[in-house]
Amino acid sequence: MKPDLDSIISLTKEHIKPSCEVSGRTFQDYPTSILMFPDEIERKEKIKFGFEMILKYGILRGEVYATSPNLEGIAVWLPPKKVHQSIWSLIRCGGFHVMRKTGLKAMKKGKPLHDYMGPAHKRLVPFDHWYLQSIAVEPEEQRKGYGGLLLKAMITKIDREGLPIYLETNTEKNVSFYQNYGFKVVEHVIVPKTEVPFWCMLRNNS
To answer: Is 66 contained in some domain?
Structure first.
């Protein structure tokens, strides 16, 4: 039997703070994080704050799941019509608070990522789709199947809807992971003005 949504738990606003901690540890040494926070100590302290807005928006407008109440793994999914966030929605989800926590310097360093990701998303998938905005697995819990569980549960649902799924990643090992679940690379670039690689991936329902 394929995993379905009964095999994972839906998260609420009460889960945001611990979920930010898990996400921060997961993405501590990712190229995007290093770009924004070159100093390792500062990165360890601040990278988690960027996920607050992602999680709030996901809970408000999408679906956010974890593998269990222990939060070994967390995934943020945005449905069709909600995949592109407006300025107002970002503010409503704590945008100003996040900017204060992360610092203006980090936001400026991350601007090339923002300038690339949004337009690329709209250009590559100008049709109804689900967006896997973030998937995080606690580092010490990785390679135990938690990421696959989160993916397969939602793929089962989305396949029934007949819709594709879009995501981005900036590590090659993640590309291989997603390819195992039917995702294909639709664009691979080094983000302009950075040394950060990005793979945009799409899973068609077919």
So the answer is: yes
